[in-house]
Specification:
4 domains; 75% helix; 805 residues; 27 helices
Length: 805
């Protein structure tokens, strides 16, 4: 057992030694550690084994050295022999080297020179190469400076872009390139500032030139419209021939302005047609737009431009305070607006997106609302119809001009209807003054005609036809006064004036006809009617003038159908057309005539009252004078002469006036008898009063105005006649007995009236008896009469009380 363990130990030690001999020294540690990990005292046995192995190797080395020693000695001997030769050879080599160094020193110098030249040549080539890279950069930068000095900013920006993207990156490591690169953003900002300054100058320029641009555009639009109107007129007459200054059948738009092309055969064709570019230099805005586009800041530029143009639009739309005073004020206002939008239209079509159709439409809608408000306000101040008419023409040209550029103008034509109403109002005011002047200068007497020429002159001005008057010899008189043909002529002038406004409104003949008729109706029913009514009410207009006014209105009424024909001939619209407005002249002149008739009745009554006020009755007279009162005879003579003037009036008017006068006279006389301030009346006064009433009845029976049947006119005095007969006959028994009977002789006598007059007579009798004893003789002769009066008074009072209850 012990022998086996010893054998295994020896074998293991042998393996370890072999491993140590064959393994790298750095890996010996684990092998040695295994020796100590084995059996105790194993390392001692291993050390013994190791010592034995070392001794064994020493013996092998010693044997080998002994074996090779002689050869080593021989080699050393040979080496010693060679040393002398080596020293000799070393001397030779040293000498050869010296001589070689001396011989190659010049070659070395030349070689170094060649190397230096080669280095210089290489450096020069490198320098040339680098300069070839830098020269284009410097050339481009110099070109950039020249472009900036010549204000070619768009090209300068393109040059900057090439510098940054192509040239500078090739030589970016050089300092001068770095300085260039640092300067480029500053140069861009300078270009932006300069271009923005140019844009501001441009905006200022177009603000100044808008007036001229608008004037040119409106003038061209007016010429185009005038030419079209002439062509349409010639075509409508059926005799159209192509004019020498043919427009070649077309009108085109260039640079935002309407241009008419002609053949150059007329003098007008020699005039150069100006466009927006002729009046405004648009290059700054193009240049600025391109610059901002290149700089990538186009949106900022667009917003700035649009903002500034909006501000300018608001300034343009602000009118001058006194614009309404002259047509030039309106013309300047319209020229500026047209110029503004012509420029915007040009910018819209000449640039891509700087302004859009939506932007221009927004501006136009804002401007249109402001324009309409301004025109409404300022046109309301216009009192001159000629100025309103010129304003209308300007609005039409303004609308046509902008419509040619694609702007909607329907609201402007709608505004023209409001302006038309204002125009009609100014016309009505003007014609009111004309009518008043005609009425003031009229002599209100028939027109005297001495010769055939005078007659034809009057008839040419007024449609008068009367067979009987035409048969009369000259000189003769026409029934109407001088104001009638003047009024008729002025109405026609008004129609012409009203028609002027309807021109160029793009309305049909039917609409124009309707507008003319409506405005003429306003003239007749409002202006002329008002003037007639005021004329009739004037205090200095007497009965003769009123009679002539009635005659005048009759003839004017008859002439209304000729006015209708006059309008029809102008508009070529048949009066039978559906919804055609009729003239209201008939009602106007009828109303005026009725007012004149009423005024005649009123003035007649006033004149009668004036005569009545001259009455000076002696109410206590004992007996009458035996003749009618002087005032009454004067009144009757006045009425008789007045009614003779009424022969030219329509029969019913004269009859009504005569009946009204007689009734008023009868009423006034009755009121005179029943005046409460008159306390007593004598029978002599009753008799005198009866004589006056008899004269009134005689006047009525003399038929001062023809046409009354029987004693119709005398019936106006029937109340007075029955009352006076009752007192003159003293027929109280019959009155009281027949009261209330239809066949009563005193049917028209009211009990209250009879009572009032009887009491006055009774008081008069009492007063007279005290003075001259006439009543005392009466009482002595017939005391029963006093009792009769008292009885009648009581019965009349009972009748009056019965009526009141």
């Amino acid at each position: 057992m012990a022998e086996n363990e010893t054998l295994e130990c020896i074998t293991e030690h042998e393996r370890i030694l072999q491993e140590i001999e064959s393994t790298d020294t750095a890996c010996v540690g684990p092998t040695l550690r295994s020796i100590y990990d084995d059996q105790p005292n194993a390392h001692k046995r291993f050390m013994e084994k190791l010592d034995a192995r070392i001794r064994n190797h020493d013996r092998e080395i010693e044997k080998m050295c002994n074996f090779h020693h002689q050869g080593f000695v021989d080699a050393i001997t040979e080496l010693l022999k060679v040393r002398a030769d080596a020293e000799k050879l070393m001397g030779q080599v040293t000498d050869t080297n010296r001589r070689l160094q001396e011989a190659g020193r010049e070659v070395t110098a030349q070689t170094e020179e060649v190397i230096r030249c080669r280095i210089q040549q290489r450096n020069m080539a490198t320098t040339v190469e680098k300069l070839q890279l830098c020269i284009p950069v410097l050339e481009m930068y110099s070109k950039l400076k020249e472009q900036l000095e010549s204000k070619r900013y768009y090209a300068a920006l393109k040059t900057m872009e090439q510098l940054e993207k192509v040239y500078i990156p090739r030589v970016s490591h050089y300092r001068f390139c770095q300085i260039m690169a640092e300067n480029l953003p500053r140069l861009r900002e300078e270009i932006k500032e300069i271009s923005m300054s140019d844009l501001k100058d441009f905006l200022e320029s177009i603000r100044k030139h808008s007036d001229k641009v608008g004037e040119t555009a409106m003038r061209q639009a007016q010429q185009h419209r005038t030419f079209n109107s002439a062509v349409a007129k010639q075509a409508s007459t059926g005799h159209y021939t192509k004019p020498m200054y043919s427009l070649n059948g077309r009108t085109h738009t260039h640079n935002g302005l309407m241009i008419e092309e002609d053949s150059g055969e007329e003098e007008e064709a020699d005039e150069e047609v100006l466009t927006a570019q002729d009046l405004v230099d648009f290059s700054p805005v193009y240049r600025c737009l391109h610059i901002y586009t290149v700089l990538g800041d186009r949106e900022t530029f667009e917003n700035y431009y649009r903002k500034q143009r909006k501000k300018q639009a608001r300034l343009v739309l602000q009118p001058q305070a006194n614009m309404h005073e002259t047509v030039e004020g309106y013309r300047r206002y319209f020229n500026q607006i047209v110029g503004f939008f012509v420029v915007e239209d040009h910018i819209l079509h000449a640039t891509q997106g700087l302004v859009t159709r939506a932007f221009t439409d927004e501006l136009w809608n804002m401007a249109l609302s402001k324009i309409i408000a301004v025109l409404r306000t300022h046109s309301s101040y216009c009192e001159d119809p000629d100025l309103v008419l010129e304003l209308k023409n300007l609005i039409v040209i303004f609308a046509d001009t902008l419509q040619g550029y694609g702007f909607p103008v329907n609201r402007l034509f709608d505004l023209l209807f409001e302006v038309r109403d204002q125009y009609n109002e100014t016309l009505l005011k003007k014609w009111a003054l004309v009518f008043r002047e005609i009425f003031e200068l009229d002599n209100y007497s028939p027109i005297p005609v001495e010769t055939e020429e005078e007659y034809k002159h009057v008839v040419s001005r007024f449609p008068f036809h009367d067979t009987e008057i035409e048969k009369q010899d000259f000189p003769k008189k026409l029934p109407m006064s001088q104001s009638v043909p003047q009024i008729y002529t002025q109405v026609k002038e008004f129609i012409y004036a009203s028609l002027k406004f309807s021109e160029s409104l793009h309305r049909s003949s039917t609409e124009i006809d309707d507008m003319l008729r409506k405005s003429t109706n306003l003239l007749l029913t409002r202006t002329l009617s008002s003037c007639l009514q005021n004329l009739i009410k004037k205090p200095h207009i007497g009965l003769t003038e009123l009679v002539q006014i009635i005659i005048n209105t009759t003839h004017l009424e008859q002439a209304c159908r000729y006015l209708e024909e006059f309008i029809t001939n102008i508009t070529n619209v048949s009066p039978e057309t559906v919804h055609t407005t009729r003239l209201y002249g008939l009602s106007t002149f009828k109303d005026a005539r009725h007012a004149a008739e009423g005024e005649i009745y009123t003035k007649l009554n006033q004149k009668i009252d004036e005569f009545i006020q001259l009455a000076d009755y002696e109410w206590g007279m004992a007996e009458s004078d035996g003749r009618a009162s002087g005032y009454l005879m004067d009144l009757i003579n006045f009425l008789r002469s007045t009614f003779q003037v009424f022969t030219h009036l329509p029969g019913k008017v004269a009859q009504t006036a005569c009946m009204s006068a007689c009734k008023h006279l009868s009423t006034s006389l009755m009121q005179m008898l029943l005046d409460t301030e008159l306390k007593q009346i004598s029978m002599g006064a009753i008799q005198q009063f009866n004589l006056d009433v008899i004269q009134c009845e005689l006047f009525a029976s003399s038929e001062p105005v023809p046409g009354f049947q029987g004693d119709t006119l005398q019936l106006a005095f029937i109340d007075l006649r029955q009352l006076l007969d009752l007192f003159m006959v003293w027929d109280w028994s019959t009155y009281l007995a027949d009261y209330g009977q239809p066949t009563s002789k005193y049917l028209r006598v009211n009990p209250a009236t009879a009572l009032a007059l009887l009491e006055k007579v009774y008081r008069g009798m009492k007063d007279t008896s005290k003075k001259n004893n006439i009543f005392s003789q009466f009482r002595k002769n017939d005391r029963d009469k006093q009792k009769l009066i008292e009885t009648v008074v009581k019965q009349l009072r009972s009748l009056v009380n019965g009526m009141s209850s």
